[in-house]
Amino acid sequence: MIGAVLVVYKPDLALTERLLTRLYGQTKEVVIVDNSPTPHDFTKVIKHYHYIHLADNSGIAHAHNVGLLYLLKAGCEYAILLDQDSLIPSDMVFNLSSLLKASNKIKQNVVAIGPRIRCSFSDKKVNSKIQKEVFEYDDLVGVTQIIASGMMIDLSALDQIGLKDESLFIDGVDHEWCWRARSMGFDIAKAKNVEMVHRLGDSRSKFIGVTYKVGAPIRLYYQFRNILLLSRRPYVPTYWKVRCLFFMPIRLFLNSVMQKNRLKRLGFMLQGIVDGVLGRKGPYKSHWK
C-alpha cells in the first residue's frame, strides 16, 4: 500500500488544490501536514485525507516524520513526499513505485526514488553539473541525492536509516537523509522518464549573466547555518562541501547587495554563520529573538 505526505505552509490554495486533484486516486492514504499558523480545509478537492495541523511550525523535517509515522501505522509499504510547489503527472506514483519494486530484481538496494525535475520558472529540466550518476539501468539512474518533493521512500528502510533530521529544520533535510542512506549501503535513484514540475525558490535574479535563486530572508539563515553544520559530517559528499563553502561569500554578496531588504538578509546570513560555527541546531527562534 502506498501513502502520500503533503507538507504545506501558508499555501497558495489554487496550486495546492491543483496538486491534490492530480494526486487523488494515486495513493490509498493521503496525509496533509500543515505548518501554517491557521488551519486549512481541502475537502472540496479531496474527500478522504488525514489532516495534521502543526501551528507552531517545527520544520519540514518534523512534518515529514509525523506524516511518515502515520503512514507506517496505517500499514503503508511506500510513501511519497510532496510539497505545495509541485505538480505531478497522473501516473507518477504508479511509475515510481513500479521502478522501486523492480530495483530489487536487479540487485540495486534502492530505498528512495524521485522524478526528473522541471523548474516552473525556466520551464527547463534541472540537471546537476557536479553530481555524478552512480549507476544506470534501463529507466533508473543512481544518484547521490534527490529533493524531498516527489521522493518515494521504501518505509521498511526507516528502521535502519532513521527518520529525517529535525535538528536541521528545513534546508538540506532531503539531501542529508539521502547521504545518510548511501553511507549505510543503500541506493538513491531518479526515474529517467518520469518528470515533475516544481518551483525552486520564490523568484529568480541575474548577476553578470548568471541566474540564481532568491528565497525568503529567513531561509538564508538555515541555508548558511546548515552548510556549516553538514560540512562537519563525514558521510556528506566532499564535492558538496567544497562547492557550498566556496560559494558562501558570493551568496553573501548577492543577497546583501543585489536584493531588497539588504540589511535584513545580511542579518539572517550572519546569524546563520554564527550558529553554524557554534553548532547550534533547531529553529531560528530558539537562538534569536
UniProtKB/TrEMBL annotation:
Gene3D superfamilies: Spore Coat Polysaccharide Biosynthesis Protein SpsA, Chain A. GO terms for molecular function: glycosyltransferase activity. Residues 17-112 form the Glycosyltransferase 2-like domain. Coiled coil: none annotated. The keyword Transferase applies. The keyword Transferase applies. SUPFAM superfamilies: Nucleotide-diphospho-sugar transferases. Keywords: Glycosyltransferase, Transferase. This is Glycosyltransferase 2-like domain-containing protein. It comes from Pseudoalteromonas haloplanktis. The lineage of its organism: Bacteria, Pseudomonadati, Pseudomonadota, Gammaproteobacteria, Alteromonadales.
